[in-house]
Amino acid sequence: MKLLILDAGHCLSLALAREANRRSDTELVIEAGLELAPGRLEELAPDALVIPPLARPISAEPAAVIAHAEAVEACLVACREARIPLVWCVSDQLYEDGFDEPIDEHVIPAPRDESLRRLILTGDRIRQQHPLHLIVRLGPLFALEGAEAWLSELLDSLMAGDEVRAAEDEIFCPTSADAAAMALLGMLQQLHCGADAWGAYHLAGTEPVSAYTFASMVRTQLATRLEGAGESVELGTLKALKYHHGHPLRRVLNCRRVLEAFGVHQKPWRLEVGRMLDSWCRDRAEEPA
C-alpha cells in the first residue's frame, strides 16, 4: 500500500513515517506542505491521500483556518478526479461547545465560530462529493516531535522553568500521535484489502482528563524520572485556568464505531505518556555532556 502524506513536519506525519518504517506493507511519500502540484496524484498513484489535522483551530487565526479548508478542498477535487481515497484528520475542537455525553460519530459538529464553520463546510463537501473518504476526528495530539506536538512543548516549558497555564474545566481525551498513526495505517490496510467502511470515525485516548490534570501528571512523572537519574532540575510551575463559569466543557469522543468496523482499541494516554517520557529520558542521557 502506498500513501501520500501532506504536511511533512506535522507530529502525525512524523508518527506515520515511524510506524511505516516498522512495517513491510506500507510505503509513504510525504510532501512538505498541503498544496498538491498539478498531476501529482496521477504521477504517484497512491492508494490514499492523508491530511493531518489543523491543531487548535479555536485559537488559530481565521486566515489560517480558511487556508487549511481551501487546501483540503483542492485535495478533494484532485482525489475525486483521480478516484483516490481522501483521509482528512480533524480536531475535536470543532465540537466547540462540547456535550455532556460522549460524542458519537454521526454527530456532525455545529460550532458558532465562523472560521470553524468553514471547516464544517469542507467536511460536508467531502461527504457529498467523494464516497471514498475517511474523516477522522482526533483528541488533542501529543508527541515528542513535530509541529503541534503538545507533549514536547510542555516538556520544553517545564525544563525551562516557565509557568505552564492550562485549563482545568475543559475535559477531553488526549491522543497519542503514535497510537493514531498505528490505527490509521491499520484502517487503511483493511480498506485497501476490500473493506467497505468509509465514513467518519473518532480516534482518541481513553480516560477523559483536563489539560491541567494532564500537565500535572506529566510534571510529576518527569520529576520522578529526573530524580531517579540523579538530576536536580527546578521544573516550571502549573497554573490552573477556568473558562466555563463552573460548568466544565466536555469534548469526549465515543470511539465505539472504529472498534466495531476495524477492531481498533484506544490506547490509554497515561501509558503512552509514560512510554514517551522513558524515551525522552533515554535520549537525554545519551546526549553528549
From TrEMBL:
Name this protein carries in UniProt: RmlD-like substrate binding domain-containing protein
Pfam families hit by this protein: RmlD_sub_bind (PF04321)
Chain ranges of the RmlD-like substrate binding domain: 63-279
InterPro entries referenced in this protein's UniProt entry, alphabetically: NAD(P)-bd_dom_sf, RmlD-like-bd
